[in-house]
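step 4 of 6: structure.
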Amino acid sequence: MVGHSFMGAAHSQAWRSAGRFFDLPLAPVMQVLGGRDEARTAAAAARLGWNQHVTDWPELVHREDVDVVDICTPGDSHAEIAIAALAAGKHVLCEKPLANSVAEAEEMTRAAEEAAQRGVRAMVGFTYRRVPAIALARKLVADGRLGTVRHVRAQYLQDWIADPEAPLSWRLQKERAGSGSLGDIGAHVIDLAQYITGDAITEVSGHLETFVKERPLAAEHAGLSGTASQERGEVTVDDAAMFLARFASGAAGVFEATRFATGRKNAIRIEVNGSLGSLAFDFEDMNVLQFFDATLADEEAGFRRILVTEPTHPYVAAWWPPGHGLGYEHGFTHQVVDLVTAIADGTQPTPTFADGLQIQRVLDAVETSSATRTWQEITA
Amino acid sequence: MVGHSFMGAAHSQAWRSAGRFFDLPLAPVMQVLGGRDEARTAAAAARLGWNQHVTDWPELVHREDVDVVDICTPGDSHAEIAIAALAAGKHVLCEKPLANSVAEAEEMTRAAEEAAQRGVRAMVGFTYRRVPAIALARKLVADGRLGTVRHVRAQYLQDWIADPEAPLSWRLQKERAGSGSLGDIGAHVIDLAQYITGDAITEVSGHLETFVKERPLAAEHAGLSGTASQERGEVTVDDAAMFLARFASGAAGVFEATRFATGRKNAIRIEVNGSLGSLAFDFEDMNVLQFFDATLADEEAGFRRILVTEPTHPYVAAWWPPGHGLGYEHGFTHQVVDLVTAIADGTQPTPTFADGLQIQRVLDAVETSSATRTWQEITA
Amino acid sequence: MVGHSFMGAAHSQAWRSAGRFFDLPLAPVMQVLGGRDEARTAAAAARLGWNQHVTDWPELVHREDVDVVDICTPGDSHAEIAIAALAAGKHVLCEKPLANSVAEAEEMTRAAEEAAQRGVRAMVGFTYRRVPAIALARKLVADGRLGTVRHVRAQYLQDWIADPEAPLSWRLQKERAGSGSLGDIGAHVIDLAQYITGDAITEVSGHLETFVKERPLAAEHAGLSGTASQERGEVTVDDAAMFLARFASGAAGVFEATRFATGRKNAIRIEVNGSLGSLAFDFEDMNVLQFFDATLADEEAGFRRILVTEPTHPYVAAWWPPGHGLGYEHGFTHQVVDLVTAIADGTQPTPTFADGLQIQRVLDAVETSSATRTWQEITA
Amino acid sequence: MVGHSFMGAAHSQAWRSAGRFFDLPLAPVMQVLGGRDEARTAAAAARLGWNQHVTDWPELVHREDVDVVDICTPGDSHAEIAIAALAAGKHVLCEKPLANSVAEAEEMTRAAEEAAQRGVRAMVGFTYRRVPAIALARKLVADGRLGTVRHVRAQYLQDWIADPEAPLSWRLQKERAGSGSLGDIGAHVIDLAQYITGDAITEVSGHLETFVKERPLAAEHAGLSGTASQERGEVTVDDAAMFLARFASGAAGVFEATRFATGRKNAIRIEVNGSLGSLAFDFEDMNVLQFFDATLADEEAGFRRILVTEPTHPYVAAWWPPGHGLGYEHGFTHQVVDLVTAIADGTQPTPTFADGLQIQRVLDAVETSSATRTWQEITA
């Protein structure tokens, strides 16, 4: 695994736990952790439970005792590491977004398709797909329970920079982060909307907004220690992204991603309305899927709060009895299960790098649309 | 109508509105309002829309231009007025609780049964039965959708005297109010539980609690004007009432009524669990009934939030389109509709005085049980 | 009052009830109802409680015993009736949308402004403003409790034509209805968003969608009686409308109005995020306002479910005790109260016709934007 | 660790994870798993991640490489194992309920108190205390935010035997399980109620109900294989338990535990009303605590939905960013953290065996009360 902060911790817990609850066809060994700084990487390896550590990722991707490379670094290094690992014959799990640009994503997708010829697998980490309630949502749509889908309304709402005095972190600088809320969290709801509906966005009208143009530099940037910085720097990414969308099927979408929705902490909300029914989900109540079945008599129809904790629900049988909910990191465990199973079975895990590339194209079209004030088509 | 405060206002709006939305077989005329004080009764009649007013209720119950007597006074005058009105051949609608004692309620029930022989109708005003969501709940149970009922948990939660410095109103004095939360609000959930399930409570173990034993006298009692009273008086009724219950069917009930549930304003909550399904209701979201249908596959079962605003729902077709909810006073309008229809049809409206008497017996058993610390049976 | 269907019934109940609960400075008399068909108008007058009726609206607007003309007809007759009434010196309450076009609305606004010089008042009926929870929302924003507003997300979701076999009513024909979901329900959420924030939309990117292009003709159109029509007609209005918006303050808006949101019956939802707090409302739970106060410690901050039924809440003191909720039609009663009070006080009631005109301009810009696939500014 | 089914899996995940997220003063090693059957214990040790296994628990409690004995067996073996382990100088974590009888619990408590003299620690596993929302609830009460507590209403609702044809498992036989819903799940809400309020139950009136007196024997009991058994056996424990309670402070409690609440899967609900505020919790939405602060102005007071995922909340800083919820098993991890910390610090972890004994006495009083139909005091 390369990278050891927020995503590194989540992925480590997943690698550690998957085989304890699921019958895996292969037994993962947490062999080597890659990082940049020797001391911090060593400490992380000890804490997160990796046998060894390196500070040189090329070494990691070429080691014989490594079969899978799990990339948890920021987006600007994804392409280089993933392409090298695939070339070295290692299966790759790459955190989302696939890359910071369409061009990189295209290159990665070509590498993945070439590797697939050799039986080497590549997968991108849109983990929320593996929340049981989301997997159930997809199943209900696929089973025709919603009929023809008409509307998708999807929001990813956070509030961690709603305070204009929150410091200018690297996530607010375009050269490092690629984009702001759009790529960081908007990408997730694009993936979920397309995954649940089995449909693809074909056209968008977008609007990116940066509400707070300047922020205090974090102490690390300001060269100050121990005192609050008076210096300010420019915010060069979007604070919020909104877009209208059309899907291939003719369904209409409304999307929003923001870090300024005061009081919403990780509100991934998606509602889908079809001719026969509707679904609604909010990650802040992640073990629940709301389902309206319009084929019931009006007298007794209503949104049902399905507690997605039954053994018949996706992934749930491996865990606890009904009503004993799962948490955020369980989606990562399910990702490991699906990846390891695909590797053992010689099948292609999803979402593929091509799926990641298509999402990158949607993100790109939203940015272009916002700049040109016109609708943009998503083209392959 | 006799009485013109809170209940008088609600009843007046009901008499005024019923014929505007429902096809009534008879057209009610708001003829005479009865009160004690000339000036206040005159003002109330003008405000509430009554043609005339009197300060002598016996006059009212004997007038030729009066067909129905609607009793909205405190409980200690119900028996006298109702019995006189029935004797005079007037149909009677009597606010709940039917009376302040079992003995009075028995006398009233005898009078009602005797009057029924002469085609004169008597009905007691447990209005919450006529909230559409409650009427739907009863229908679902009656239709067998819950199977065998196992549990009833019912709460009536308010908080208006949670502050120990709230003054000693007449409602907190036994000689005037009869009982505290038990009779005032507990009676409602007893009625709802029995109405929805179609079952009767046969045995109780109760506990009455008076948390605040003394309160400041209201200015009127203390003979002070303009200054906060230092004088205190004893609270002689229960602040809260709780009881366990067994029903004739073997179902188990847990009941609670309190004016000390801080933050709960008028939370009439009832949940019923049966072998095939469950229902849940909370008056603070009065247009909604929650229904769990256990005959659905586990994968998709969940409590459904039925918005009880469809034309197929009880009483709703007369009102607004789906999603346009009703309010507190609509139950009173439905009560007028049902009463007038029964009078015109020559049928017996419900709940009858006998129903009111049975509830009085449950209240009485709870009090006795609390005093004796043993279970008490409800006997006819 | 002119018109006697859905809105006529709601307005009648409001005129009848306002003085029974509120201290009105003037006592409304329900004098004349105007309609087209003699028999139906007579029946409606009897049912809704009007003293007289006419089938000739010009007669109504010139009668000496008429002081206020309440226009509840479809949008295509608003301009003519309102302008005539104002010219005749009658105060006017006009249902929304103000008109079917910007041009008509401009003419009406000129007439209203001219009439105002003579002390004659004109008001447009965006009734949802007068739901207590909405009035409280505006107050909280005006009091600065949200700080700088960043986001508005507003939806008006219904589902009454989600079934593609629902018949082609006049509301789905452009020549009669003007527009579809956009003007009928979208206008409401535009008004609410601007009212609550005290801000104005200045720019939009819109998308109108007609999912079902043809529908069975209703029997009345097909010349058939008693049998289901096989004939189909074209739907010439939008089924759904979505738009992104920018406000004068720099806040970002996302709006959606649809009649295809299966399971959503009258879900008027509005969420506002500001630098200090957030608000959320859903008309399907109309007595509740959700409020997040970000100035509290993180440890105890959360969206609060304010039950807007306290005497300190707007309009509520006239009604029932805490926890005893109001229903759909109460907003109309509050509208009567505010209008009558303004007339008596000689002040201008709001929303004015100029407010209605501005909303018409937003609607117009959304339509143009949808047609041109570009952003449109709202210009005066 | 002794025992390897449901609780064994949860405890194993906790021992494995605690040190990965929290800074533990000691590093737990998962050394030996004890079970009865060699093959099944070996498989469980491999799956759950224990280094060795034994089928002889006395061996386990005397091994030199064992410092802590974690008892996850059924209640009838708790006393014997715990007392032996404490005598052998091992720290003990014992699953709840502490024992199947008051006598056993007393003996265990004496052993624990004697061991404490020698610095050997004993703790009982009421894990739900360590859900962050529950720990926050306790803190708010302890900080005085609720004022004087008046009401506790606590329910533990499940539905896994609502179907009368569900088989007769050992959990429904008194000789093996001790009691039914009362001890299995009722014990949890008794602990939570006392823990959150910091108060003790002193008196109860209970009612135990067995709705379904006979059930089909499970195949294992009936000696049948592959065919549904026609044989039936008697259910000898309670299906549901309800009781009224008084607390030392004078607060009033209403408790209910049942396996017949159709649609409720693991609904641990607790509401506490005090003179200054109220709290409400439901485990089916376990990352949320509802809090009503009555010291706010009426206009803006309401139950706030605190998402208990902030770094300032108990235990949360070790985990994920705000809005990224925890699941069922995290409480077990927190239990390990607290136990290991107490052992390292030489302090007494809670709940102690004495706490477990007091709960056993409450359970015992409920049973006696149900049998005698009178109130019972809890005596030390």
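step 5 of 6: annotate
 - Chain A touches chain B through 20 residues (CB under 8 Å).
 - The domain at 132-285+287-326 of chain A is CATH 3.30.360.10 (Dihydrodipicolinate Reductase; domain 2).
step 6 of 6: archive
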